[in-house]
Amino acid sequence: MKGVDSLRERLTGEVVLPDDPGYDQARAVWNGMADRRPALVVRPTDVDDVVVALRFAREQDLLIAVRCGGHSIPGLSTCDGGIVIDLSRIRGVEVDPNRRTARVPGGSLLGDLDEAAQRFGLVCPVGVVSHTGVGGLTLGGGMGRLMRTFGLTLDNLLSVELVTANGRIVRASEEENAELFWGIRGAGPNFGIVTSFEFRLHPLDHPITFGTVEHPIERARELAALWRELAENVPDDLFLSFGLAKAGEGAAAYITALHSGTPDQAERDLAELRAFGPPNADSITVRPYLETQHLNDDPHGWGHRFYMKSAFLPTLPDHAVDLCVEHTSAAPPADEIGFSIWAWGGRISEVPEDGTAFTGRDATAWLAAEAMWDDPGLDEACRAWGRKALADLAPFASDGRYVNDVAEVGADVARTVYGDAKYERLVELKRAWDPDNVFRLNQNIRP
Ligand SMILES: Cc1cc2nc3c(=O)[nH]c(=O)nc-3n(C[C@H](O)[C@H](O)[C@H](O)COP(=O)(O)OP(=O)(O)OC[C@H]3O[C@@H](n4cnc5c(N)ncnc54)[C@H](O)[C@@H]3O)c2cc1C
Questions:
Q1: pLDDT digits (tens, 9 = 90+) for 378-403
Q2: What residue's CA is closest to ligand 1, atom 7?
Q3: Residue 62 and residue 42: Cα distance in Å, rounded?
Q4: Ligand 1 atom with the shortest distance to the CA of 195
Q5: Tens of pLDDT along 271-314?
Q6: 207 with 287: CB under 8 angstroms?
Q7: Nearest CA owner, ligand 1 atom 17
């Protein structure tokens, strides 16, 4: 490729081309369905390298994919024929225990942040699979088991350093480029390559209480009623998800809980859940927070095929639960398939809806249909299952969608995510910072 030798000379990092031995590994992303062949993968080691890679891509008029953890559900961090700017060499979290902040390089994974913060008895609320990227998760939202206590990941963002479309290095925070900082928090991948995040941390220096109680799917309605009651009445330091999962010929209903208060408080707040019985299984126990953050890592390892579709709900009525039961029972034979419904509220709803680009804070629940499988022959059945389930549940949904869950890409997607008013505000911002739409492999705001 023209200019690659001089790119190699200017970079401290690495360039991987299709004929290089590491190419197949370099082009792989988390979702096995996103099987694409970029013209080159560049792995910068610092912000100057990122500027060099971006300038090269623009000179060559290449389609640009930016990658942190590579977990984009529709595979937006890779492409055919373009360049992947893979930030995975830009890692190494620094915690300031006195200020309770963390500086997190743009290619870091959730596990890097969790481990660095917990060394000081601190925490930033992040997602539930430690090999997910801080980059994509934060720039779109960041839901996790501490969100009702400490907010979404992006609610804890203090500032970012990013490389803009014209190769400038810019800072954004509430004080500096405040409008850009507003858009970064929910529509971030549209505005630049974030090379560094600064987060606020919170104390969490005791073991937490975490686990799942599982019941036969026939008790789904009763269990959902209990979930509703708990979500309304317990303090914000309780994370609660209600779910349905198909397993072989059978199916189960479950509630997963994480209580970040003391073990005594947790025992009191979870007493009713544990007395609801008899369960098929109950794994609730006191354990280190970090242990819980790794429990999903292996089951959600790289390379499986995955589809999901989600919505925000103002309530979870019985009729919606019945629909979820029907769709779970009739689901195709994927390795993992079912629904996951997480209680919202707490800190998330205390941030004003127009305070960040993120949309959907008033919901009381987030609901997702999720399927994971390995056989490409099941692709169409699994996608169709998720689409039909969410179409049937649409009458129960409220406005907005969580951008990081959207498996479809297309011209109208971003408007459905942010709503008309925020979308127009984001278009203004996009015109100011990326008028040529250099960063378009994302849920795109069209300038
Ligand atoms: C197994 C799994 C578990 C998940 N769990 C959760 C969860 O618990 N909570 C939750 O909220 N979400 C969760 N998600 C969804 C997740 O938030 C998104 O998939 C997110 O986009 C992943 O970020 P990434 O950096 O790994 O992805 P990537 O594929 O690397 O990037 C995703 C998007 O962000 C852009 N991007 C990434 N880094 C940067 C950067 N530094 N600067 C500019 N743009 C960037 C990319 O260009 C791309 O458009 C999960 C996804 C998976 C696959």
A1: 999 999 999 999 999 999 999 889 99
A2: 127
A3: 13
A4: 41
A5: 999 999 899 999 999 999 999 999 999 999 999 999 999 999 99
A6: yes
A7: 137
Distance 135 CA to ligand 1 centre (A): 6
Question: Ligand 1 mean position to 77 CA, how many Å?
Answer: 9
Q: How far is the CA of 396 from the centre of ligand 1 (A)?
A: 27
Specify the 3-state DSSP secondary structure of 338.
strand
Q: Which mutation among 78, 109, 137 tests ligand 1's pocket best, with the greatest number of atoms within 8 A of CB?
A: 137
Question: Which residues are CB-neighbours of 56 under 8 A, at least 6 positions away?
Answer: 3, 7, 42, 62, 83
Q: Which of 49, 63, 66 to mutate to test the pocket of ligand 1 (most atoms within 8 A of CB)?
A: 66
Signed CA dihedral, 9, 10, 14, 18: sign only: negative
Q: Quick check: CB of 70 below 6 Å from ligand 1? A: yes
Ligand 1 site, residue 140, Cβ cutoff 6 A: yes
Q: What is the pLDDT of residues 321-378, one digit of tens each?
A: 999 999 999 999 999 999 999 999 999 999 999 999 999 999 999 999 999 999 999 9
- Write out the two tokens for 178: 């405040």
Output DSSP code: residue 109: B
| Tokens at 392, concatenated | 């049937």
Which tokens belong to 34? 């996103």
Q: What share of the chain is helix, strand, coil (3-state, %, to 5)?
A: 35, 25, 40
- 220-233 helix and 263-275 helix, angle to the nearest 10 degrees: 150
DSSP label at residue 215: E
Ligand 1 atom at minimal distance to the Cα of residue 192? 43
What tokens appear for 344 in the block?
Answer: 């919202």
Task: Report the Cα 326 to chain-centroid distance in Å.
Answer: 27
Q: Is the CB of 257 under 6 A from ligand 1?
A: no
Averaged pLDDT for residues 122-137:
98
Angle at 145 between CA 30 and CA 390, to 5 degrees: 65
Q: Which atom of ligand 1 is nearest to the CA of 127?
A: 8
Contacts of 248 (CB under 8 A, 6+ apart): none
Nearest to 368 by CA among 428, 420, 327: 327
| Ligand 1 and 194: CB distance under 6 A | yes
Nearest to 87 by CA among 62, 104, 100, 111: 104
DSSP state string for 237-301: TEEEEEEEEEETTEEEEEEEEEE-S-HHHHHHHHHHHHHS---SEE--EEE-HHHHHHTTTTTT-
**DSSP 8-state class, residue 147:** H
Distances (CA, A) of 36 to 44, 146, 181, 275: 20, 35, 32, 50
Q: How far apart are CA 378 and CA 383, in angstroms?
A: 9
Distance CA 6, CA 4 (A): 5
